[in-house]
Design goal:
One of its GO terms (molecular function) is DNA binding. By secondary structure, the chain is of the alpha/beta class. Helix content is 32%, strand content 32%. Strand 13 and strand 14 form a beta hairpin. Helix 2 packs parallel to helix 3.
Length: 247
């Protein structure tokens, strides 16, 4: 069984690695110092289990768990943390177990034994039951499945969300990705960072440069760093003007 260990403290990672090394049929295939590194390492190494801390910089364990659950073959998640107040949130993201530090060998062995009984297909079936808003707090990253695997886009880099039938195009500083979410859910989660300019578009407030009237008569929005513009629907023009006055 392949294990990935994620903790922002080197000593904590070293201890978990030593415990795993004493167990037969289990090996540590990668280590990570935060949730972002864990997601990237999981994409490369395809571990069966991730031992995950919760409070970490850049991306915490809960957000990383939500991202990993979107993988085509999600690993089993076992949280290893010094804080017991996150237990309910951990099981909301379908964690297999929740171990308090200092993690004992017996507890870890029992948790890994339970993980061994789950097939990847079973873990994928559980992940598919997760709601769209998997993390207990607002995400800092948007996760998308691409031909390169699971990609993470920082929310602060997103220029706009554009709905097109079933999928949402996420335009960001490095290009664009497609996600299977709804504008309604994105607006509910990021409503203070983005503004609705059309029934199919949410735009990042930080990147709005100006609004102008096009020769065809409709209004369009210019965004900093982008050559393309977005159409502003009539019903949103007045509200957008008010928002821009506050920027």
């Amino acid at each position: 069984m392949r294990v990935l260990v994620c903790d922002d403290e080197q000593l904590a990672r070293d201890r978990l690695v030593r415990l795993v090394d004493t167990m037969e049929g289990v090996e540590v295939v990668a280590e990570a110092a935060n949730g972002r590194e864990a997601v990237q390492a999981a994409r490369r190494m395809q571990p069966d289990v991730v031992l995950m801390d919760i409070r970490m910089p850049d991306m915490d364990g809960m957000e990383a768990a939500a991202c990993l659950a979107r993988s085509e073959q999600p690993p089993a998640l076992i949280f290893c943390t010094a804080y017991d107040e996150h237990a309910l949130d951990a099981f909301r993201v379908r964690a297999l177990d929740y171990l308090l530090k200092p993690v004992s060998r017996d507890d870890l062995s029992a948790a890994l034994a339970r993980a061994r009984t789950l097939t990847r297909a079973q873990r994928a079936a559980v992940a598919n039951e997760l709601p769209q808003a998997q993390a207990s707090q607002r995400r800092q990253h948007i996760s998308a499945r691409t031909h390169r695997g699971l990609e993470l886009v920082p929310v602060e880099d997103v220029r706009y969300f554009l709905a097109d039938q079933k999928y949402i195009t996420v335009r960001h500083s490095g290009g664009e990705v497609l996600i299977d979410e709804t504008l309604k859910d994105l607006e509910a989660e990021f409503g203070d960072l983005f503004v609705r300019v059309h029934r199919n578009a949410l735009v990042a407030l930080n990147y709005i440069e100006g609004m102008e009237q096009a020769p065809a008569g409709h209004h369009q929005l210019r965004l900093r760093g982008l050559e393309d513009t977005l159409v502003v629907s009539r019903r949103h023009v007045a509200g957008l003007r008010k928002v821009m006055l506050r920027l």
